[in-house]
Structures are given as structure tokens and as C-alpha cells.
Amino acid sequence: xxxxxxxxxxxxxxxxxxxxxxxxxxxxxxxxxxxxxxxxxxxxxxxxxxxxxxxxxxxxxxxxxxxxxxxxxxxxxxxxxxxxxxxxxxxxxxxxxxxxxxxxxxxxxxxxxxxxxxxxxxxxxxxxxxxxxxxxxxxxxxxxxxxxxxxxxxxxxxxxxxxxxxxxxxxxxxxxxxxxxxxxxxxxxxxxxxxxxxxxxxxxxxxxxxxxxxxxxxxxxxxxxxxxxxxxxxxxxxxxxxxxxxxxxxxxxxxxxxxxxxxxxxxxxxxxxxxxxxxxxxxxxxxxxxxxxxxxxxxxxx
Length: 302
Prior knowledge:
Strand order of the largest sheet: 1-2
Protein name: MEI1 protein
Distance between the termini: 47 Å
Structural class: mainly alpha
Number of strands: 2
Helix content: 55-70%
Number of helices: 15
Largest sheet: 2 strands, parallel
InterPro entries: Immune_Signaling-Apoptosis_Reg (IPR052133)
């Protein structure tokens, strides 16, 4: 089925949302819901179809073209297609790297546009934000070095030289700039305050991957980002309201992040003791799977 569906997608235009959206979803689940052996073959089939990759390129570019000032609150058919496109490309990046699959056609993405989509949001639906963050995580995990992806700069004309980093920190973090990192972290913190479960999971995962990337590039920058005082205020905000327990997946994962990077000004021995006390009093068998997994990671890190 992959062959005819890929070929069908390649014959479509981005505006053919009724046909494309379920087709891209089928390709996405074909990658994820199969055996490792079949998964490797599925990745090869998708990456060998040039017309499909050209269609995906057009879909990604529509993210910046389909952004009217007053987007509907619900997920429109256009936004649903964009979600499917970003999630499929993020998966292709992941599995192409895992299996070292041959690439027949590269995808070009403007990193500034991707970052601005998260930083400024511009009324984008939550599911679209989550999908773009999944893509951002994929490129961060691969240090922006995927053979499937070409990162371009918004301010660089075709054929022109890439702009030079303005500081030593920017050089170390390239293609990210220090100012972009700060803006991205602040925006991720603000998105966490919404307390939407799906959004919170994506934001914390993105923050984890970002700090890991920074730590590989420049440890001082990573530790500086992880120890920002605003993080402590964020934790208090997340713990306010109805559920004040530390045993919330996003809170546990944030705590794990701060313990890992030794941010003692954010999480103290008192908070660590409180979490352990809550865990001791809880019925572990009845905890949701996400909470149980996050608690395991936290205790292992401690």
C-alpha cells in the first residue's frame, strides 16, 4: 500500500486537504506501527519517492503562507494537514538517521520561521505547535546535521554566504543564536503555564532536548539556561490551582532536568524530599503510566 499512497500524494497539491491529510496520516502510522524490519523498508520506500518529498516541501512552506491574522479556534482542514506534514517529516528525520537510509531528495526548512512559530505562536492551534516542536526536537537531536534536511536562513539570499555569528557563543551554538535560545526558552515556559496536557508534554520534551543540545555545544550556556530563576517561579505556577501534587508528569520531568544540570537554585533538597515523600505515600500501582515513567526517571537521576 505504501507505493500507491506515496504516488497518490505526489500527484496532489497542498490544497487537496481532504485526500492528503488521511494519506499522510497513513504514511505516518505505517512508520510507527510496524516491526523494525518493515520499518526500515517503509522508510526506504518513502525517501525514494521524490514526488512525495517535493509535496512535503510544499506542505511545510504552507505553514507560513496559511497564517491569516484571525485563525479559527478549532483545527481547520488546512491546519490538520500541516500537523500531519510536520509529524511525518519529523519521523522521517528520526528513522533516516537511525537506518542511514539513502536520500534521493532533500527538504529545505527556514530555521528562523520554525523558531518564530513557537516563540510568537500567532494564534496557531495547539496541535500544530506540538507538531512543529516534534520537528524541532528531531533536528536538535541530530545537531542540525541530517542528510535529509537543509537548514536555510530567512535573511540569506539564494547563493549568498551564510551570515557570520555575532559572538563566540553564537559560533558555538550555530545555527542557533544566543538570543534565539533565550526567546525560545521564555516562550516554552509561557506555553507550560497553559496547563494543557498535550502541550505540556511537548514543551517539556522540547526543553529537555534543547538543553541537551546546548550542553553538547557549550556547557556554560546550558547550565546558565537551566539555572534561570524564572524556572522556579514556573514550578510554583504549575503547582498552583487544583492539583498541588509534585507527582505530575510535566513537573517531575522539569525537576529531573534541574537535578540533572545541578540547578540547586531552582530545586532544593527540600523539594526533592517532598517528591520522595509523596511517592512513598502514593499507591504506585495506581499512578498513570506517564507519571510512573517520569517518577522513575526522576528517582534514577537523583
